[in-house]
Specification:
Distance between the termini: 34 Å
Shape: elongated
Order of helices and strands: EHEHEHEHEHEEHEHHHHHH
Bound molecules: NADP nicotinamide-adenine-dinucleotide phosphate
Largest sheet: 8 strands, mixed
Helix content: 40-55%
Radius of gyration: 22 Å
Number of helices: 12
Length: 292
């Protein structure tokens, strides 16, 4: 760790140490952004607390407020980040438990789907809140996380939160909570679109006569290679597609069928529907929200 690391003098607490919280802990330690004595976590089950303590050497607490207090900033220049990582339906209870235990210099980061900054700030009586929306590949450090801070979050806290989110993969700062709902539809729901296309292509390979194992290898590496090639070439996807489409060839025939089947329109409608759903879920009080 060095002076350019915004987390070098920062402590972090993770409230609700499930899949995503563990991804944050593992990523932070793997990238050596913090040491284990800078992290605390809370979990209601003793077995999970023991598991995480044994695996990462972090302090674990049964009570959420004890984890919050364990990472209070230990000096005027020190930082402290409190990550809310419970399921949406548990959030209201957790906020009630934490009320009164947040230090004025802590920044609260929510990864809870649909939970609005205003709801969290009002329930906690604490204005410095960052809302984030990661996606599933965060579990292997290859995610993309959209994030937006409230006006009360200072520059140093923003840098600390940004550094923490980098442990999950790439980050994109968005301008407002409407864009958080847009990111929910595009990137947080995004792996679903890709997995469905992956599955359909593998099934098509099996239909032609490949074993599932071979079809999977061919499809997965094609997807990885196509994305890396597109990123590296910096060309528009249509240009890349034209490069491999010979007159009267296999790509031309396949494209004709995809356009005839309205694949492009279906994808666009799917993303729009997910956006509207994200907006609708955000309108509900957190205690009745059941989806992540
Ligand atoms: N997974 C993703 O890819 C993803 C992507 C984007 C956003 N998110 C958001 O991230 C949040 C966490 O998701 P996740 O997949 O990590 O869920 P998860 O694995 O279920 O983690 C939540 C953890 O909180 C624990 N918990 C339950 N009640 C609690 C309480 N009162 N206090 C403290 N902890 C409590 C749960 O314990 P039990 O297991 O015993 O119930 C569970 O281990 C969700 O809000 C979700 O919307 C997840």
């Amino acid at each position: 760790m060095n002076d350019t690391n915004p987390l070098s003098n920062c402590r972090l607490a993770l409230i609700g140490c499930g899949v995503m919280a563990e991804a944050v802990i593992a990523g932070l330690l793997r990238k050596q952004l913090v040491t284990s004595d800078q992290i605390a976590g809370s979990h209601p089950r003793a077995a999970r607390r023991e598991e995480l303590h044994a695996k990462y050497g972090i302090q674990m607490f049964e009570q959420n407020k004890d984890a919050a207090r364990a990472v209070y900033p230990d000096g005027p220049d020190a930082g402290s980040v409190l990550v809310l990582a419970v399921k949406p339906q548990r959030l209201r209870r957790v906020l009630e438990e934490l009320k009164g235990s947040i230090h004025q210099d802590q920044v609260v980061v929510s990864i809870v789907a649909g939970a609005k900054i205003e709801t969290i700030a009002d329930e906690l009586l604490h204005a410095a809140v960052v809302r984030t929306m990661p996606n599933t590949p965060a579990q292997i450090g290859e995610g993309v996380t959209a994030w937006t801070p409230s006006a009360a979050v200072n520059q140093k806290q923003e840098q600390q939160v940004h550094a923490m989110l980098n442990a999950l993969g790439k980050t994109v700062r968005v301008e407002n909570e409407r864009q958080m709902d847009m990111a929910t539809a595009l990137s947080a729901t995004g792996p679903t679109y890709i997995f469905l296309m992956m599955e359909a292509l593998i099934d098509a390979g099996v239909h032609m006569g490949f074993s599932r194992h071979v079809a999977q290898e061919l499809v997965q590496q094609t997807m990885i290679g196509a994305v890396l090639f597109a990123k590296e070439s910096k060309k528009h996807p249509a240009e890349l597609r034209n490069m491999v489409t010979s007159p009267g060839g296999t790509s031309a025939e396949a494209i004709y069928q995809m356009e005839k089947g309205s694949l492009r329109t279906v994808l666009s409608k799917a993303v729009w529907a997910a956006f509207q759903r994200a907006e609708a879920l955000g309108e509900r009080p957190a205690k009745t929200s059941e989806r992540s």
